[in-house]
Design brief:
Order of helices and strands: EHEEEEEEHHEEEEHEEEE
Radius of gyration: 16 Å
Oligomer: single chain
Length: 203
């Protein structure tokens, strides 16, 4: 199982970080050791002083796919979840300054919160899923998949040109605007529409 993540997939998020709006998906990966599930606590890493939350819709792959054709893309995922792409923003800034990859800032242990999954058939329209994140009870991010630059099908088509997708793989589809720092003692809670999906205490 692998985690493939998408950066800058919402225009307003790209702008809030002073990044150009991409013309094709920005892809990076996280190892399976990044996964944090079952509402477990997140322990602040010692190598960063500026860890940020980024809430994202997560897609679960159900079939092996390479060079997926557009008309079949919808058949390659069967469930939708919610996650957090924790990012060590200070480390990311240093890596970007030197023209180095982001992985150390994005792929550290427990940097990928993953909720339970909801069958895709339960959603009337996967291109209009509202989701949100609260910090200590206050809403900090609100997103909707209709605002993605590259929708789920387009992401699978693009990724599968380069990387074979396999059953159980997870795709983090990008975060909307509103990202920000976490501190020890914070509590993050994620929602799809009104349904609570995960809770994560920062320790």
């Amino acid at each position: 199982m692998k985690i493939i993540a998408v950066g800058r997939n919402y225009i307003n998020h790209a702008k809030e970080l002073n990044n150009p709006v991409p013309t094709e998906p920005v892809i990076f990966m996280k190892p399976d050791t990044a996964i944090l599930k079952d509402d477990k606590d997140f322990y602040y890493p010692e190598f960063s002083n500026d860890v940020h939350y980024e809430v994202e819709i997560v897609v679960r792959i159900c079939n092996e796919g390479k060079h997926i054709a557009p008309k079949f893309a919808h058949k390659y995922y069967d469930a939708i979840g919610l996650g957090i792409d924790f990012t060590a923003r200070d480390l990311q800034a240093r890596q970007k300054e030197r023209g180095l990859p982001w992985e150390l800032a994005k792929s550290f242990d427990h940097s990928a919160v993953v909720s339970p999954f909801i069958p895709k058939v339960n959603f009337p329209n996967v291109e209009e899923i509202e989701f949100s994140l609260t910090k200590n009870g206050s809403t900090v991010q609100i997103g909707n998949t209709k605002n993605m630059i590259f929708n789920i099908d387009r992401l699978l088509i693009y990724i599968s040109k380069y990387i074979t997708l396999r059953k159980g793989d997870l795709i983090f589809t990008g975060t909307p605007e509103g990202v920000g720092p976490v501190s020890i003692g914070d509590k993050l809670e994620g929602f799809i529409a009104e349904k609570a999906m995960f809770s994560c205490q920062i320790k």
